[in-house]
Amino acid sequence: xxxxxxSLDYQPLANPKTTDENADAQHExxxxxxxxxxxxxxxxxxxxxNHEEGSPKxxxxxxxxxxxxxxxxxxxKDLVGPTRTSSFHWFxxxxxxxxxxxxxxxxxxxxxxxxxxxxxxLWKYDNEPQPQWDGISLxxxxxxxxxxxxxxxxxxxxxxxxxxxxxxxAERDRPLADIAVFDAASRGLVxxxxxxxxxxxxxxxxxxxVAVILSLGFDPFTQNLIQYYAKSVPDMDQVARLANAxxxxxxxxxxxxxxxxxxxxxxxxxxLFNTDPTAAWATxxxxxxxxxxxxxxxxxxxxxxxxxxxxxxxxxSCPVGSDSFRxxxxxxxxxxxxxxxxxxMSPSFSNGVVMTMxxxxxxxxxxxxxxxxxxxVVNDSGLVDxxxxxxxxxNLSSNTTFIGTECAIVPCVRSxxxxxxxxxxxxxxxxxxxxxxxxxxxWMASHVDPPWGLEHGVRPGQTFGIRDGWVxxxxxxxxxxxxxxxxxxxxxxxxxxxxxxxxxxxTFPWYDAADVAQAxxxxxxxxxxxxxxxxxxxxxxxxxxxxxxxAIRDAPYxxxxxxxxxxAVGQTMxxxxxxxxxxxxxxLPVLVWVLGVVTWVGTAWKTRRAKIxxxxxxxxPLLFLYREQDSQREREDAAAYGPSDEGYERRxxxxxxxxxxxxxxxxxxxx
Length: 671
Description:
- Keywords: Membrane, Transmembrane, Transmembrane helix.
- InterPro entries: DUF3176.
- The chain crosses the membrane at residues 100-123, 583-605.
- Pfam families: DUF3176.
- Residues 1-62 are annotated as: Disordered.
- By secondary structure, the protein is α+β, with helices and mostly antiparallel strands.
- The chain folds into two domains: 2-224 and 583-670, no CATH class; 243-259 and 295-522, no CATH class.
- 41% of the residues lie in helices and 23% in strands.
- The strands form four sheets. Strands 1, 2, 6, 7, 8, 9, 10, 11, 12, 13, 14, 17, 18 and 19 form a 14-stranded antiparallel β-sheet that branches.
- Strand 9 (327-333) and strand 10 form a beta hairpin.
- The longest helix is centred in the N-terminal third of the chain and has 34 residues, at 138-171.
């Protein structure tokens, strides 16, 4: 069958050139070869000059004139050297490198270097800010390295598949069509899939096919290595500032008798009439240019609320008079001096006091205040029902629930961590200190000195309190003590908010406690704005304490601005894009590289064991292997040039061929 194929494909046709043209071409070729042969050594020259016609021989004729059995393959190559000396000089070196699998080794090392480069770059920037390079991005760099790695690793794979077809036929008789299958596998995905199916996993070549198929995901996998995420980090060029104060010494205007600081008063009123704890009355002054900042820990002097429910201590007295409907009832809180009363005039309405509040003189002192309140839990809408009776009055009866509350506002030191997140200010308490040390100093009107250090934001030697006695007097006696002193009374047709009687002989300013009582009575506290929304007085006192503390913290800034205020310094957080490396996606590129190495090493070993040349993808060996069976001359040329890829290339340089297409078929023929 082989001889039939040879005769079909390589039958020479008549030369279409003229005799003169052919003679000129042969003469020019003969001159070139004679010139080359003059450099081949004395032995070769002697054989040439002994030609019976005395004319130069072609390289093939020179080789045939020498017995191949008497010379080595290296001498054969010297005798029949290339027609083009310079080009074959480099081709000889290239062929030698290919014989040693040099370019496959370069591919393996190049792919390894690119993968190592990807690993090193990503390891350096893993969980680090996205690099800002000129002209190239991190993704672009990884993409370039991935492209280099893929191109390099496919070099030993494709060349190995090409070489394995010769190993495939060297092992035993195979269908000639398998050459096309192997050749297609070395060129792309579809061919590799076809070879994988054709071999059914029963040959070493399937590893190369798998490598080619998996290389399709090389670039997507390397791109998935990189993930970007936003992270808040401190910006050292921007400083965040937060108002805080260790001492308070601000009073309002006045001569002889000072009024409370107007800023503090305004803040307290805002806290009573606007119960939202996130409003401006509860938020200290701060400067955060990015809208995201952190401080902490920070310690500041403040007034802290302490409230408790004393409803179980209330005393009820409701004697029945001559008229069973006219009950004069009293609800009182022992040791407070406060009570409320109501008189049930009929089953539908009552008169009396539904809320009372004020300071507990017995439990208050020069630096802190204690308040008591009693309130009837009634419908406080202030409207009349369908009969015209006041709703509050109609709900006041012996079945009414009463709430007793005791609240104290005491000086304290608060330690907290503060933050601004997306423009919203937040605090997280670290600790609160209520104790005092009278021996610290005599010039402090009120002082609170916690045994804390820097872990709570307290600097060595830092003292907390109110310096001036007038400040304490205006804040406590002239303002807070009188502001929360009022009664709410009800009759059949009206609600009244009455200021409690001024203590006898008092000369301090009078603040509008009636408005405060009205605000508390009608306040709408919820679980979002107060921990005990059912106890309105406790919620109001808590808001008052927060408002006073806010005014104390802001006082240095209001008086001196940022330059004169000892504001807490924090971190301005900015959003930076960070890199996260998902190393699992590197598995496929590494696997392809390993398969490439295994394919290369295995192919080299199988080639050596089969004792065949490293022809790889060259088509010339296939042509000459069939051609060498045609004639004695071809067999002699084969012996002279040898079976190497270089030898086939040299022989091909001496042969001119063209494709002849006729009705009966196509042939590649000598010209």
